[in-house]
Design brief:
Layout (H helix, E strand, L loop, with lengths): L1 H8 L1 H47 L5 H14 L5 E7 L2 E4 L9 E9 L4 E12 L2 E8 L1 H51 L16 H51 L4 H31 L7 E4 H18 L3 E6 L4 E4 L1 H18 L4 E7 L2 E5 L32 H11 L2 E7 L4 E7 L4
Parallel strand pairs: 7-9
Antiparallel strand pairs: 1-2, 1-5, 3-4, 4-5, 6-8, 9-10, 10-12, 11-12
Helix pairs in contact: 1-4, 2-4, 4-5, 5-6, 6-9, 7-8, 8-9
The structure holds adenosine-5'-triphosphate and magnesium ion.
Magnesium ion binds next to α8.
């Protein structure tokens, strides 16, 4: 259905519809003009015949002879096809004696049951002396002409319009399909899958395939530059990780070896800071790695309910320590295609947020209908901040003094995106509800 809607919106389809409308308009006008001309020609030919008939009947100029000729002719004529009448001094004679509206050439409907006259006739009346001589013909020739034109309309014009429309539909549908492919590729590229390319279209290249080739070239260039950037960041990470770890060791050593006092205190603080730097650094690298990767080769069917059960069990002691209870609600079996470790990491991050950012109480971990959610009864996240907290290193003002780097939700967002799922933060009245919804095709 939507395919047809797309096809109707496609430029070739619109052009075709306009051309068909123009063709129909031009053809109808020329058809009507031809019909009118043919009708006029037939009328003038009929007038000539009738004029000649009048001339022949009135050749003698004597009313009695004319009346006789008309009476004879009327007797032989078939009143269904031919009318003859003379309104002379001796009264009207002929095969139609009813009322005669008007004079000159005209088309009139005549009715005379006694004479078998019932229908349309072309009549010509002319004055001969004081009398009026009228001859007429039925309109069968005109009916035949109309029939010919109706047939032309039915068997040439209509099929042509239908064929044109069908052809336009096919072309429109084809180009809509190609535009959809371009749109899909662009969507995949925007959502981070830089390997996406347009399918090859058979046939000679046209404007759409040129646009497609341009998109492919752009994607290849983007893929190459992202790969180069990734390489640089990995190199920096490798180069920096070891000195940072060495520095952490030195500071740790200092903090343990030094006697109690201001110097030892500085070393302990510095050691904690470098630990924080190291974790932040690792988390940033991990997010970049997850965002950079496409749909991983490690994707396997993952039982979300089982995963949630394992994590709830693992985190139960930590939850109890902070005064929380984890309420696990798993209904039905939800299997998704994914990376088990990454999905586990996402659930852990959401659970840790609920434990760290909400006061003691119940934290619900629920899995049902291809969705997983973690809800708490804490202060929640204001609606205006729900997009910002997904950014790297972003933390709400009130969390400035609690431990953390502001990377947990960014990591969840990256993992969710990699699984082509959706992360939705909503109000739990009160508290936060974080939901991961997996698509049907996941
Ligand atoms: N369940 C929650 N309730 C209230 N606020 C939350 C909740 N989860 C996250 N937040 C707010 O969103 C911010 C960002 O969360 P995020 O998980 O990204 O970072 P973090 O928890 O502060 O640090 P990290 O997860 O890196 O240790 C938090 O600092 C906090 O202000
Ligand atoms: Mg967190």
């Amino acid at each position: 259905m939507s395919q047809w809607r797309d096809a109707l919106r496609a430029t070739p389809m619109r052009l075709t519809l306009r051309l068909v409308a123009l063709f129909l308009l031009v053809s109808t006008v020329s058809f009507l003009v031809t019909w009118w001309l043919a009708n006029e020609a037939l009328l003038s030919a009929t007038e000539n015949v009738l004029e000649q008939e009048i001339e022949e009947l009135s050749a003698s100029g004597d009313p009695k002879t004319i009346a006789r000729a008309v009476a004879d002719g009327a007797q032989q004529a078939d009143p269904e096809h031919q009318i003859l009448r003379y309104d002379g001094p001796g009264g009207p004679v002929g095969n139609y004696l009813g009322p005669l509206p008007g004079e000159k050439l005209r088309q009139v409907d005549l009715h005379d049951k006694g004479q078998d006259i019932n229908g349309s006739y072309i009549l010509l009346s002319e004055r001969v002396g004081d009398a009026l001589l009228t001859v007429g013909q039925d309109t069968e020739a005109f009916n035949d002409l109309r029939e010919v034109f109706v047939n032309v309309l039915l068997f040439t014009l209509l099929p042509t319009a239908v064929l044109l429309l069908a052809g336009g539909m096919v072309i429109g549908l084809r180009s809509a399909r190609r535009l959809n492919a371009i749109e899909d590729t662009l969507e995949r590229l925007t959502s981070g899958d830089l390997t996406a390319r347009l399918p090859v279209t058979p046939g000679p290249p046209d404007d759409l395939s040129r646009v497609g080739a341009g998109i492919d070239r752009l994607a290849s260039a983007q893929e190459a530059s992202v790969a180069a950037l990734k390489q640089v960041s990995t190199d920096i990470a490798h180069d920096l990780r070891t000195p940072i770890q060495r520095l952490a060791l030195v500071l740790d050593q200092g903090a343990t070896d030094l006697p109690d006092g201001p110097a030892q205190e500085v070393f302990t603080r510095a050691s904690a800071e470098i630990q924080h730097i190291s974790t932040t650094f690792d988390a940033l690298l991990r997010i970049a790695q997850i965002e950079g990767g496409g749909r991983g080769p490690h994707f396997v069917p993952v039982d979300l309910g089982q995963l949630a059960r394992d994590i709830a069990e693992l985190y139960d002691p930590a939850a109890q320590e902070s005064g929380h209870q984890i309420d696990l609600q798993v209904s039905g079996k939800t299997i998704v295609q994914g990376d088990r470790t990454l999905l586990g990491q996402a659930i852990v991050n959401l659970l840790e947020n609920a434990l760290h950012h909400s006061p003691p109480g119940t934290v619900t971990l629920a899995v049902e209908d291809r969705t997983l959610s973690v809800s708490d009864h804490g202060p929640g996240i204001p609606e205006t901040e729900r997009e910002a907290v997904l950014r790297r290193l972003y933390r709400l003002d009130r969390s400035r003094n609690t431990p953390g780097s502001g990377l947990g939700l960014s990591l969840v967002a990256a993992i969710v995106q990699r699984h082509r799922a959706e992360l939705i933060l909503t109000d739990n009245h009160p508290g936060l509800r974080a939901t991961i919804r997996f698509g049907g095709g996941n």
